[in-house]
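This entry is passed on directly below:
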Amino acid sequence: MKYQIRTEELFDFSHTVGGDLLRKCEYPWQALSYIGEWIVALGAVLPATRYEQVTKGVWIAKSAKVAPTASISGPCIIGEEAEVRHCAFVRGNALVGNGAVVGNSTELKNVILFDGVQVPHYNYVGDSILGYRAHLGAGAITSNVKSDKSPVSIRVGENVIETGRRKVGAMVGDLAEVGCGSVLNPGTVLGKGCVIYPLSCVRGTVPPDVIYKHHGEISLCRRKNDG
């Protein structure tokens, strides 16, 4: 079964302003160390006609909708037509793409959300990258630290790739769907267009275009992913 773990396999770089950063990384988790400095550099050159620097290190598109109850710390960029809803908690190092939705009580930390990503209800997304139009159902979270606090490894079939990082959440490919209440364990990689059943506990790498029912049981996905 074919897995997707390389950055260029998981993501269409045309759907994020962070494309130039990601192109430099063979594997997407390698970008996690540089998100904050990338945002600061990019924010400094964003067009003032379309973006406003609302506080140090925080740039918000003028077309974005941000609830007054949302808490946003820098470095952070909120893209055009994005929506940040009631009591969202953006802790910094967050690149939120155009048209993305950050929902009520959702928490972000050290993330890249591609254009059209939806994390709309009670989600935690930390040290993770979510591809174009990826969607987390209500209560779905990315767990980013192992219980023993040891460095996170990426499991690809029988092979293991060491990240050297203590914190790695999930790498979620374009158009992936994650069901409500699911947990993506540290170092989870979801291929493009895969569908995760609700209440799943996912670990390791899930191939593209499959339905993940539980560990050891997947089937082909018939859903049309035409973007």
User: Anything to note?
Assistant: The chain has one domain: 7-220.
